[in-house]
Amino acid sequence: MRETPPASEQGHMLDASALPSFAFGHRSLMWWSTLCLIAIESTVFALAVASYFYLRSHAPRWPLSTPAPDLLWGSLNTGILLASTLPNHWLKQAGEAGNLPRMRLWFVVCLVFSLAFLGVRALEFTTLNVRWDTDAYGSIVWMLLALHTVHLITDTWDTGVLAVLMFTGPLEGQRRVDTSENAQYWYFVVLSWLPIYTVLYWAPRVS
Question: CATH: 3.40.50.1440, 3.30.70.360, 1.20.120.80, 1.10.3720.10. Which one for 29-205?
Answer without folding.
Answer: 1.20.120.80
